[in-house]
Amino acid sequence: MAKEKETVPGSLIALTIGLVVAVISFWYGQNNNLLPEQISEQAPLVDDLFTVMATIATALFLIVEGAIVYSLIRFRHRGEDETDSEPVKGNFPLEIFWTAIPAFIVIGLGIYSVEVYNQMGGFDTSGGPQMAHHQHHSVEIASLIDRDVSAPLIGQAGIEEAIEQAPKTRPDYGIGASPQDVNNPAEVVINVTGLQYAWLFNYPGDNITSGELHVPAGKDVQLNIEAKDVIHSFWLPQFRIKQDALPGQMSQLRFTATHTGTYPIVCAELCGAYHGAMRSQIIIHEPNEYEAWLTENRVATGTDQPTVAVNPQDLSDSDYLEPYAKEMGINADVLAQIQP
Amino acid sequence: MAQAQIPIDSQINGAHQHPEAWSWYHYFWYNTDHKVIGIQYLVFSFIFYLIAGVMALFLRAELYTPDSDLLDPNVYNTLLTNHGTMMIFFWIVPAAIGGFGNYLVPLMIGAKDMAFPNLNAISFWLNPVAALLMGVSLYFGGAQSGWTAYPPLSLITNNLGQSFWILSIVFVGTSSILGAINFLVTIFKMRTPSMKWDEMPLFCWAMIATSALALFSTPVLAIGLTLLLFDINFGTGFFRPEMGGDIVVYQHLFWFYSHPAVYLMILPIFGIMSEVISTHARKPIFGYKAIAYSSLAICVVGLFVWVHHMFTSGTPAWMRMFFTISTLIVAVPTGVKIFSWVATLWGGKIRLTSPLLFAVGLLAMFVFGGLSGVTLGTAPFDIHVHDTYYVVGHFHYVLFGGSVFGLYAAIYHWFPKMTGRMYNEPLGRVHFLLTFIGANMTFLPMHQLGMQGMPRRIAMYDPQFAGLNQLCTIGSMILGVSIIPFLINMIWSWGWGEQAPRNPWRSLTLEWQTTSPPAIENFDEEPILWAGPYDYGVDTQMEDDEETVEELLATVKSEVK
After folding, report:
1. What is the dihedral of CA B96, B101, B107, B111, to 10 degrees?
2. Residues A63-98 as b or e (16 or more Cβ within 10 Å = b)
């Protein structure tokens, strides 16, 4: 009898374990530090979703792994006891419980994901004001760059004109405007072309073609993405957005950078032997610096010829890229071929 | 019915206490015995496991430094493509389905052989042909566009290597379809008459779900790859954008098979788990029906989740959302299985044998892989980590931590039955420890790498990721070393191990009721179901009962003699 009095009640143990698991899970969800810096308005949305999932996952992980380890220690076979264990063949209420709880969790996560995707601008790709202009353009798109660049623009063309020069077609795929901006055209439109093994950025209003992406902070930027040769994938890790660049099909990413700085642009889809070297950078300026950059690069040539703002050796400042520059086939000749 | 004749046959042949056995050379040629075919599949596929494993070690060695300094980048892509292809099509699928499926299904249901023994032998021999074609592909430089072979890259990269690679996969796919038909007919038509559906071992339920999936989805892959072959060699433009083709259609065809392929690689393993855990924990499986039906649920839902591999591709918003939800739903039946196995362990009398250690290792790693899978299922997060090392980490947790651990558990568990000899237990435990440490060290840091910004399938990477990559490489070397105790154990035990009794694990499924190794037509007499497959401890007089069974069998034997 004395012994029974001294044992801790099972419900109290369960409560304690539950609290400890909850505290650890919550702490790990908040402090895992697995994701890089947040530079876009989408990034906090995605990270919050991850935090929720990491918290739930940590709790489930601790409970299940804890049960496994506990069983292995507590219920391991000892001594010469060759009898079998208590034949428990199931427990219907328990089985219902562990079917229903995950079902509720995943349905909740599903609804939450749809909401996050909406806030990111994922639903802006079909429908919306420019929908009427949409057409199938698999062949037409292939010459998009030539068309934009060949439009003669005098030096003073600004962002406003860039918008007017934006392609009339509306991409089917990718991330568009957030629900708040769905009726506003983007403030900066840049055409992105992926080719083995570089990204080219064309500023249609300004006749500039660059190997690095320059954008103003705090402005709504739209990238129209396509590929020349094979599939590439345009990834901005600090922005938490990614979209495949598809030959023959137009896609888009739309974002607002929240800080100035320089961050990597990564190709995420296997595109050939030097796929790993297909990296560039996004440089986020203060809006006035951005204007200066535009002016500088427009002035650089002083003609209606498009400017190659970056020479091939500067495509990336990473040291490792240098030995490949020749093999990658990106040199002045290749860039010149792309220009009219 | 053929089965009615079994006792008569055995009497006519003057039943032999020690069954006539196949000689070693029978295993190297055309043979219609499902047990020979099963072992042929296992040994054949294991060779490819070693080859693909060495490829992985080279990949990891290359990634020890950020620069591309060990391998030519084209060779790197050949290795990464063929590592994936061989691990999937020449190791896990043939070993789990062809190997254990063939060996165990007829024994477990009390049949003499598969329904179509010749078809069975043909489906095996398609694999060496496929391997030969893969060898030709490698001779020409190999496929270099990833196991996914997305056009246009697959159309413009090493055409000869890519073409032979396609032919090889088509042969393997054909083998898979023929095998699926054979399994379905065998399980539906050839169960021993007294075996009801709910008395069937759970491995057989898993094989029903696996075969149905293979039957529905494999032809779609064959279509996609054949169109790709035509595009490469015969001037068609199905996937050539400049000719009006559509590259995204290929991705749909590919993933309509290749997502279910994930379940082809894990459902049989789930079946193995139920057998191993219940037997070595000496406890009935917890929730037989839930485990059986969740296999079918995974099979059905698994056919409708393929677009989650294409969330960043040319997929519209509604598709990304629909497949987010359907993908998340798959987690429910999978969770049911996990919880049921944990509940089976709970309150058991667990023997820490090598098969159980690997089964528990699987459970531990699969939980993690399943949870990271749920995060990947949500499109908003997947957009960030798609095609990164996060994905590589995730699928190695479920494919290595899941399928390969399960195969190891199965090899140890049925080794006495297949070879008639016991394996060495301490070596098996060393093997487990090295594998478990190596796997976690290799694949856990990959999650962080991916989230921080390292894409997959690259030979050169940003130097900031060097530290974690070195950790992964060291882990992979431990994995490489872990195979040595296993090989020594298998080869030594097969040749010189202690003789195995008929039923060393005192298991209740039918394959353990015959000799080790089983006679050529499996059972001298039509097997009798003494108990359900997992009725451990159901009768308190269990020990006495088992002795009675042994005695009964002995009496029967002596009478026959």
Report:
1. 180
2. bbeebbeebbeebebeeeeeebbebbbbeeeebeeb
Sheet holding A307-308, edge to edge: A173-174, A251-256, A220-227, A188-195, A198-203, A208-210, A307-308
Question: Low-confidence residues of chain B, pLDDT below 50?
Answer: 1-19, 540-545
Residues of chain A numbered 228-247 and touching chain B (CB < 8 Å): 229-231, 233, 235, 237-238, 240-244, 246-247
Residues B180 and B209: beta-carbon distance below 8 Å? no
Name every chain A residue with its beta carbon within 8 A of the beta carbon of B246: 248
Is residue A150's pLDDT more than 80?
no
**Which domains are delineated in chain B?**
31-560 (1.20.210.10)
Q: How far is B74 from chain A (nearest CA, A)?
A: 5
Is-contact B121 B104, C-beta < 8 A? no
Position A140 pLDDT exceeds 80: no
Q: What is the pLDDT of residue B541?
A: 45
Alpha carbon of B24: minimum distance to chain A alpha carbons (Å): 37
- Nearest-Cα distance to chain A for B558, in Å, is 28
Q: Using the beta-carbon criterion (under 8 Å), do A53 and B537 form an inter-chain contact?
A: no
The residues in B 246-285 lying below 8 A from A, measured between CB atoms, are 246-248, 281-285
Whole-complex ipTM: 0.88
Residue A6: per-residue pLDDT: 72
> Which of B77, B318, B452 is opposite residue A273, by nearest beta carbon?
B77
Instruction: Quote the pLDDT of residue A301.
Output: 52
CATH number assigned to the domain covering A123-338? 2.60.40.420
Selection from A287, A285, A272, A278 nearest residue A315 by Cα: A278
Most B CBs within 10 A among A62, A109, A182, A322, hence the mutation to make, goes to: A109
* A-contacting residues in B 519-538 (Cβ below 8 Å): 534-538
Domain boundaries, chain A: 10-74+91-120, 123-338
Q: Which of B338, B383, B451 to mutate to test the interface with A (most CBs of A within 10 A)?
A: B383
pLDDT digits (tens, 9 = 90+) for B103-135: 999 999 999 999 999 999 999 999 999 999 999
Specify whether the CB–CB gap between A133 and A169 falls below 8 A. yes
B242: how many CB neighbours lie within 10 A of its CB?
Answer: 12
Phi-psi domain of B507 (left: phi exceeds 0; alpha: psi -120 through 50; beta: other): beta
- B76, B283, B452 ranked by CB distance to A84: nearest: B283
| Spatial distance between the Cα atoms of B115 and B181, rounded to a whole number of angstroms | 9
* CA–CA gap between residue B54 and residue B267 (Å, rounded): 26
